[in-house]
Design goal:
Strand order of the largest sheet: 6-7-8-4-9-10
Structural class: alpha/beta
CATH architecture of the largest domain: 3-Layer(aba) Sandwich
Main location: membrane
GO molecular function, one term: ATP hydrolysis activity
Protein name: ABC transporter ATP-binding protein
CATH superfamily of the largest domain: P-loop containing nucleotide triphosphate hydrolases
Region (Disordered): 308-336
Distance between the termini: 29 Å
Strand content: 25-35%
Radius of gyration: 24 Å
Number of domains: 2
Subcellular location: Cell membrane
CATH class of the largest domain: Alpha Beta
CATH topology of the largest domain: Rossmann fold
Largest sheet: 6 strands, mixed
Shape: elongated
Number of strands: 14
């Protein structure tokens, strides 16, 4: 099977994960990731991202459905998969008294075909911290050490679970550049992140999870295109909203005003912006504070989550959602 012309190295079909007590964290999701592709899983806390990634990493068997990584079941055929993947968990655990270099060497001893300690630390910008004890590292430096260990075995598939949490802006961008280089070198990357800018800038495709289901999927551009663009400006003195051409003729789907500021929403940004600017030119007026922009991934994400929540609420009102989920959701320690 192929995705965007690439052989699929991750295949997920009707995947489900149910925890003790009946809480269904992953509710029948299907997607695939092609070789050399960077795919992002997005979602609010509790959406099922980590539960899904743990199944892909072979840390637990699925409750139902099918998972294949590099053509193998990552849980049942772990020896065939583990040497070919790299895993960066949300939070790593290192012996605090070991130095950074000692930690990498220890990990390398359990890794087939490991990079040298020097190469691994250089890749993540920790070469100068090689002799520092792990307990003395900052939170961001520990995340970079996590990444170094994930890259030790030159993985074909790399799982990154919130890789830039705790990093400053410079550290995040350095990590993004490294991930791009790995992808360009043929590494397949599956990323979970709360930084929507990160997903928008890195991912070729993405899926938005909500309450264990995929609410939207596609390229970042395709997902954002599902939401209206925005135009905001200040009306010139002496002009009112009614002086503009009819909003429907401009392609406006919604609008709001605040004092003299007008905000328009449209699914035809070029048409609306062109006609608005032509009107301003003919009227010989200036639209102060003019701001024209497409929807951001953040706006699309929030709207999709709201719409998915609305569908869930309607379903529950109709009695289609069981009480087991509601009860299980309150159970302390239910990991999603």
């Amino acid at each position: 099977m192929k995705t965007n012309g690439h052989e699929d190295v991750i295949e997920v079909t009707d995947l489900r994960r149910v925890y003790g007590g009946g809480f269904e964290a992953v509710r029948g999701i299907t997607f695939s990731v092609g070789r050399g592709e960077l795919f992002a899983l997005l979602g609010t806390n509790g959406a099922g991202k980590t539960s899904t990634v743990e199944l892909l990493e072979g840390l637990a068997p699925p409750s139902a459905g099918r998972v294949r990584v590099l053509g193998h079941d990552p849980y049942e055929e772990r020896p065939a998969v583990r040497p070919r993947i790299g895993v960066m968990l949300q939070e790593g655990g290192f012996p605090s008294e070991l130095t950074v270099a000692e930690t990498v060497r220890m990990w390398a001893g359990c890794t087939s075909g490991a990079r040298s300690t020097e190469e691994a630390l250089e890749m993540v910008g920790l070469a100068r911290r090689a002799g520092v004890r792990v307990k003395q590292l900052s939170g961001g430096e520990k995340r970079r050490l996590d990444l170094a260990l994930a890259l030790l075995g030159r993985p074909e598939v790399l799982f990154l679970d919130e890789p830039t949490t705790g990093l400053d802006a410079e550290g995040r961008r350095a990590t993004w550049e490294l991930v791009r280089e790995l992808r360009d070198g043929g590494t397949t990357v599956l990323l979970t992140t709360h930084y929507l800018e990160e997903a928008e800038g890195l991912a070729e495709r993405l899926a938005i999870l909500h309450e264990g289901r995929i609410a939207a999927t596609g390229t970042p551009a395709e997902v954002t295109a599902s939401q209206p663009s925005r135009i905001a400006f200040d009306l010139p003195d002496g002009y009112f909203l009614g002086d503009l051409p009819p909003l429907a003729e401009l392609g406006v789907t919604d609008h709001e005003t605040a004092g003299r500021t007008v905000r328009l929403r449209t699914n035809e940004l070029q048409r609306t912006a062109t006609r608005l600017l032509l009107w301003a030119e003919r009227a010989r007026v200036e639209l102060g504070g003019l701001d024209i922009r497409s929807a951001s991934l953040e706006e699309a994400f929030l709207q999709i989550a709201r719409e998915a929540s609305g569908r869930s609420d309607a379903s529950e009102s109709a009695g289609s959602a069981g009480t087991v989920e509601t009860t299980a959701r309150t159970r302390k320690g239910a990991a999603v």
